[in-house]
């Protein structure tokens, strides 16, 4: 059988981890990235034995490292069929007037520039082969802005814009470009946003049924298995209890 390869960024947790396992179960050999090497080791234990696994530990902010790692992949790993640009987080939830510059840097550098660095390394090969699929994980925060979401929302609006641009520029090469914009998904996202404050993070998901990471992985599986002439270009997925970024029917 022909080798099929998927690269998932941010595969150490949440949506990326669930997506990595799902794609591996579908038969994709897997390049999984993140900063936490131990989590990538643990991920390996969840994969079918017959799937090849290449863990890559890097910070997507480190431009030269990202480019050198991804442009110098072993020959058997170079022909990536699916790139899932998932790595990202919110840092802080503060009004703009008291925003923290380090948080702003992190969100722009990881969610936007990191996605661009990884894409820059992978897209030329897809163009050469005139095939491939890029799945960018946006957010409802890329479709709407909510109070105190300012820079995180800006970063995800940027992901939305970059995705649309990719779809246009890569259209002549037959590369499918897909954006998935989830609402509230219970992952480590809020723990990171609130800098380890577990009680505050847990509260975000109380009083309703949030999405779980596997819900997004299932949508990715569906998107990936569409026939050659079909692309699920832009998908917003919310918990049933959520009507917009700010309207959530909580039973509290
Ligand atoms: P998690 O915090 O569970 O996972 C985030 C992943 O991103 C981790 O694997 C983390 O790996 C990786 N990551 C973060 N920063 C870096 C970095 N500097 N370099 C490399 N990897 C990094 O959150 P989610 O699974 O929820 O988030 C995944 C994506 O989904 C993000 O883009 C997020 O914005 C988006 N999203 C999440 C929603 C939610 O409600 N949870 C809703 C909408 C979109 P490590 O720490 O090991 O580096
Ligand atoms: C994550 C969802 O609503 O916290 O992107 O921004 S939200």
Supply database-style keywords.
single chain, alpha/beta, Rossmann fold, two-stranded parallel sheet, 9 strands, binds 2-hydroxyethylsulfonic acid
Question: What topology does this entry show?
Answer:
Layout: E1 5-8, H1 14-25, E2 29-34, H2 37-44, E3 53-57, H3 63-71, E4 82-85, H4 101-129, E5 133-137, H5 150-170, E6 176-182, E7 185-186, H6 189-193, H7 198-204, E8 211-212, H8 213-224, E9 234-237
Parallel strand pairs: 1-2, 1-4, 2-3, 4-5, 5-6, 6-9, 7-8
Helix pairs in contact: 1-8, 3-4, 4-5
The structure holds NADPH dihydro-nicotinamide-adenine-dinucleotide phosphate (NDP) and 2-hydroxyethylsulfonic acid (8X3).
Provide the helix percentage: 40-55%
Which CATH first-tier class would you pick? Alpha Beta
Ligand names: NADPH dihydro-nicotinamide-adenine-dinucleotide phosphate, 2-hydroxyethylsulfonic acid
CATH topology: Rossmann fold
Low-pLDDT residue intervals, each spanning 5 or more residues: none
């Amino acid at each position: 059988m022909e080798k099929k390869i998927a690269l998932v960024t941010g595969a150490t947790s949440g949506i990326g981890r669930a997506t990595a396992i799902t794609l591996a179960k579908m038969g994709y050999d897997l390049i999984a990235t993140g900063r936490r090497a131990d989590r990538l080791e643990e991920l390996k234990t969840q994969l079918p034995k017959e799937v090849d696994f290449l863990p890559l530990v890097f910070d997507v902010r480190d431009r030269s490292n990202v480019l050198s790692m991804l442009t110098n992949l072993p020959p058997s790993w170079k022909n990536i069929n699916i790139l899932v640009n998932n790595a990202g987080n919110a840092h802080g939830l503060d009004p703009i007037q008291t925003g923290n510059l380090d948080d702003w840097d992190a969100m722009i550098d990881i969610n936007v520039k990191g996605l661009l660095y990884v894409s820059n390394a992978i897209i030329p090969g897809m163009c050469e082969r005139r095939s491939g699929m890029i799945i960018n994980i946006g957010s409802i925060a890329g479709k709407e802005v909510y109070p105190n979401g300012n820079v995180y929302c800006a970063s995800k609006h940027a992901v939305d814009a970059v995705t649309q641009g990719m779809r246009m520029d890569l259209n002549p090469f037959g590369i499918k470009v897909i954006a998935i914009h989830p609402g509230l998904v219970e992952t480590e996202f809020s723990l990171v946003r609130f800098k380890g404050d577990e009680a505050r993070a847990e509260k975000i998901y109380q009083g309703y049924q949030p999405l779980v990471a596997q819900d997004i992985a299932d949508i990715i599986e569906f998107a990936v298995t569409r026939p050659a002439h079909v692309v699920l270009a832009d998908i917003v997925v919310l918990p049933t209890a959520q009507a917009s970024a700010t309207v959530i029917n909580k039973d509290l």
